[in-house]
Write a structure and sequence with these properties.
The protein is mostly helical. It has one domain: Orthogonal Bundle (Vanadium-containing Chloroperoxidase, domain 2), CATH 1.10.606. The protein is about 80% helix and about 0% strand. The longest helix has 28 residues.
């Protein structure tokens, strides 16, 4: 098990306990990020938030099609692992939401938090953030170059921030999403190396 995997399994229980105890810190920080209504900024962050589904679908698909067109078997293989990372991340995120059942911040604190975007079922962890960081980590593992890593994680961070700005997730939801997305991708890519050795 790699160092990143150990960190992932160490931080999930710790994060859950902090979420239960640190609700006041969570809501105070979210209140500062959520800020008053600003139509221009609100629309910009809604747009960033809404790009997650197309980006998640397009990333492994583009990798696979490019690999097919260029007869690059390695790129095709990487597209499978990226797709698998996203599927596992989505499944785990949904499972945690159902188990933990944390209400959305705009539901619990309607007088403090302004709902500026869409928020579906439960709050913990942030599914958008999970998927954004799973994509960024998969791309970074597939193409370990600064010009892939920096834009990938910048985009993922923007998605994470958008979820708080829109008032649909607590900071701890987003932090959990970051750990879950990154951890899932590391595990999928590491399992491929382990299978190769076997």
């Amino acid at each position: 098990m790699t160092f990143q995997c150990k960190l992932f399994f160490l931080f999930i229980p710790l994060l859950f306990s902090l979420t239960l105890r640190g609700q006041n810190i969570d809501i105070r920080l979210l209140d500062k990020i959520n800020s008053p209504v600003n139509p221009h900024a609100d629309n910009a962050w809604k747009f960033v938030s809404n790009t997650i589904a197309p980006v998640n679908i397009a990333t492994p698909l583009a990798m696979f099609v490019t690999g097919l067109a260029t007869h690059d078997k390695d790129l095709q293989k990487k597209s499978y692992y990226t797709g698998a990372s996203l599927l596992v991340a989505a499944g785990l995120s949904t499972t945690f939401k159902i188990i933990i059942k944390r209400p959305r911040p705009f539901t619990t604190y309607p007088d403090i938090i302004i709902k500026k975007g869409k928020g579906g079922s439960y709050s913990f962890p942030s599914g958008h953030t999970t998927m954004a960081f799973a994509t960024a980590t998969s791309l970074s593992l597939s193409f370990p170059k600064w010009y892939v890593i920096v834009p990938s994680y910048t985009y993922a961070a923007a998605v994470a921030y958008s979820r708080m700005y829109l008032g649909v997730h607590y900071p701890s939801d987003v932090l959990a999403g970051i750990l879950l997305g990154m951890g899932t991708s590391f595990l999928v890519f590491e399992s491929e190396k382990w299978l190769k050795k076997k």
